[in-house]
């Protein structure tokens, strides 16, 4: 981590930022030079921040990959605070734009309204938002990066059903919002395709509007423990840092956890990583890397870019080689059916 911009610092600068707007040539001037030969880019994290072993870390990995291509890249990081509002997020993004960053990545749909507002104030700065394609974040200088999480989750469901010895699996969602419901929808569909009689428990750690569900490993652990005690032997967590608790619970119970966004068999604590059966991944790293390099190379193009199995934007991890031959074949067959268009995975849970 190069530098952390705190919420307090962002708020303190709000008055000064109000005068910048779209007329601030130092922050949004033409060309991609910044502080001489230095090229500045920034990433604003979602709740859970660095060390979530999930999509915040995966997104930052994209920044590190971009630095290998852009030696003069200076990366600024900004952490999110629990329970903050749109104004706090707007202040954070404004501070980053006013500091001369040419490419700014906002991790998570919670930044939708704030990035839409700030992007208009700094038309010469390029922004990217992960997991949102709503009108709130839309702008000519905004790239909306979204994924077909339901497709990777479908494969996770197939794997879970094929590997379950009890015919009973579970799903833990961080926050009950449409994005996380996509994970649920795909997982349920894939599991039922592999085993029509499969029993699936589900729970959401917090309701819509309460984003603490993405940063509560204790709640994730308690929910998974409850499922394991009821007979589930594989639990999939789409819950950000809260998924750490699900993996811990799986390890203690001698059961399996399925990770999300990153390959959590590699990112989870080594003492419990062996309990990660597989992970439904999305290529946050590659998309962030492409965004930053496109800005540096003057090849930026805004708008929504959606990535699924066909585009290698989502996938299922094989680290640890835990899947049986039967499960591997079922997953491979399911992937081919989706890529070939023979199976359409719904992004919304069935009623």
From TrEMBL:
Keyword Membrane recorded: yes
Pfam families xrefs: Bmp (PF02608)
Keywords, in A-Z order: Cell membrane, Lipoprotein, Membrane, Signal
Predominant cellular place of this UniProt entry's protein: membrane
Topological relation to the membrane, as annotated: Lipid-anchor
InterPro entries the record matches: BMP_lipoprotein, Peripla_BP_I, PnrA-like
Subcellular localization: Cell membrane
CDD domains cross-referenced by the UniProt entry: PBP1_PrnA-like
Domain ABC transporter substrate-binding protein PnrA-like intervals: 42-345
Signal peptide region: 1-18
Family stated for the protein in its record: Belongs to the BMP lipoprotein family.
Record-given protein name: BMP family ABC transporter substrate-binding protein
Organism: Dermacoccus barathri
